User: Fold these one by one.
Assistant:
Number 1:
Amino acid sequence: MANKAEYTIEVPEDRFEVLNYIKEAQKPLKIMIIGGIDSGKTTLATFLANELLNLGVKVAIVDSDVGQKSILPPATISLGIPETNFSNLYEIKAYKSYFVGSTTPMQFFGEMIVGTKLMCDYAKGEADVIIVDTTGLISNSGEDLKRMKIEIIKPDIIIALQKKNELTRILNPYEDKIKIFYLKVYEGIKSFSREERKDIRAEKWREYFKDSKTYNINFNDVAISGTKVFQGEKISEDEKRLLESVFKWRVLYGSKCEGRYVIVKRDLANTSRHVDKNILYYLDPDRFNNLIVGFIDREGFCRGFGILKEIDFENETLEVITPLNEYDVKNIIKEVRFGRVKVNEHGEELGLLDRELI
């Protein structure tokens, strides 16, 4: 399994200085590692965790890098609690996960912040040191996300990996509140192209879904979230017939919430339509095909992923493939939450939807 970082003791001396500080500091501790893309955050997290384990320290790792996930499943924020040494984070099984549903956090700040906070809170009773590995977004809205995470998590230590002074503007407000280590990015760190990152994700998707089965889940057996389609109440037969007559559609499903209609339809005629989408939003059913969905338990944690193959609106069922077993699907899962990544069972990413498109 391809992964970006492996455990090594061939690290710059300043990393050992940080380790020595952590060893002497009062526990429990929360440590946040921030830095740009390919700055060595996961390598550092791997090194620190292994060295602390060697000292008998209980360690938890919060993997919040949804774009280059190490602790699977992908597109989640995951908590790992290693008990023995490991070569890379991929070897660690997710203890708990929170569903984000995207490989980019830009439209999912709420999920990124809530998920990271929940994982840190859950780890409090399980570990002496919590290490938070973050995304490589440090500019524009990524800068805002880092500030929000710092303010909600309140780390005891921040380790900033920077090439020059690119993190100073983010961390300046916290200089007198939090112990901050500014470390230089290791010159030998490997950079990954966009295509290489995509290939790494594809291998992880493929590995995750390799033993999947097909299930049909009834609309009424679970809560369905992450989409506007199932919000509010279902439209009446009279409303359905009116919409079909006016717009030359076959309406497969429709709902209304606070004066706004959301319609899943198929066109029966090629005609131009001028519609205020603040009142009537419509989409084709194919938009949902191959969409990642999260299976959520009663505590709000993600128990696993599925690929949505089709929505049968007539029989009101979701056809999904997932490696989860039948008992979990039928008894443990209380919610199916729609994500925005499209993936096939071979691991190929087919696209990333804008949040507002479904």
Number 2:
Amino acid sequence: FGGAGMRLDNVSSGKSADKAGLLRNDIITKMGIHEVGNVEEYMHALSKFKKGDTIDVVILRNGISITKKLTFL
């Protein structure tokens, strides 16, 4: 993936992303207060959360920005 953000190649059934309604090929652009421009920024943002935290995740789906609530399991 060459654009800004982090594209989901897979969403595992029953996991946090699945329960939040994220889909394969969604592009994560923000997690909580953390901007996600690439996989390194995604990993950095991910390290800031723990099990039980609920955050807003901003995704691009078919060019449309969508905010979802995600709870880390």
